[in-house]
Amino acid sequence: MEFKEKIKLFRTLHDQNNPLMLPNAWDASSAKIFERNDFQAIGTTSAGIAATLGYPDGEKIPLELMLNSISNISKNTKLPVSADIEGGYAANIFDLRKILNELEKFEVVGINIEDGRGTYLREINEQKVILDFIKAYSPHLFINARIDSFWLDIGDLKDRIKDVIVRAEEYKKSGADCIFIPGVKDIETIKVLRENIELPINLLQSENLNSMQNIKTLKIERVSLGSSAFRNILTNLDKISSTFKQGKLLHSNGNLTYQDLNLLMD
């Protein structure tokens, strides 16, 4: 699929009968597994990529390593790829321009960019400057504007809801195409946000978003795995390690064979 076709397809996936179920890859093998399972597109997980290379999440990983991983994911799948660039990894707009240039080389069709800065949120106007620049410099990019009011537990519930609604409207004016609100799980809160946000909404999968019908009823356009698949694999690896250390047999029924693994990566 040509880059222009991927760009167009990714946008249409946010305006279809069924929600976009977006898995998040951390390397080539995870991207290929997701593609094999007929997903429509793939996101990246900054947490998964960082942990794979020995770093915690939160822009602790050197930018070059993050970009290399995004490039590797993109070139190992035929699907549209949206990159998690956290807060932008940029000290200034000129640094951000370099990142956007690299993403275009990798044929990345979209980005997640967040307003959370560890323990606080960027000021709205400061985030709008970043979004304005991205939209002007890379108008083809689908901007998934992440609002971290719930993720960082800032303020009480009423204040959080109000802050998200205000930020969503302002980010829309600055070119955001979708609003990502990680940390929201309560059904009633989701309904209030849905009623007051015009743009498509992206949420992380949770116990209240556990079926396609449930997601459609709430009118959520996009649901992401985030780092949960990566963390699930590490959890299983921990169990495997414990079993093996005790000298117990590791049951391989249902596992990828060595031959299947090589075919997957071919």
Share of β-strand residues:
5-15%
- Identify the quaternary structure here: single chain
**DSSP helix fraction:** 40-55%
What is the number of helical segments per DSSP (H or I, 4+ residues)? Answer: 11
Number of strands: 9
Shape: globular
CATH class: Alpha Beta
Global Rg: 19 Å
CATH architecture: Alpha-Beta Barrel
Outline the biggest β-sheet. 9 strands, parallel
The CATH superfamily is known as Phosphoenolpyruvate-binding domains
From the N-terminal CA to the C-terminal CA, the straight-line distance is 19 Å
Mean pLDDT: 96
Q: Record the strand order, biggest sheet.
A: 1-9-8-7-6-5-4-3-2
Uncertain spans: none
SSE ordering: HEEHEHHEHEHEHEHEHEHH
> What would you call the structural class?
alpha/beta
CATH topology: TIM Barrel
Organism: Bacillus cereus TIAC219
GO molecular function: catalytic activity
Protein name: Methylisocitrate lyase
Pfam families: PEP_mutase
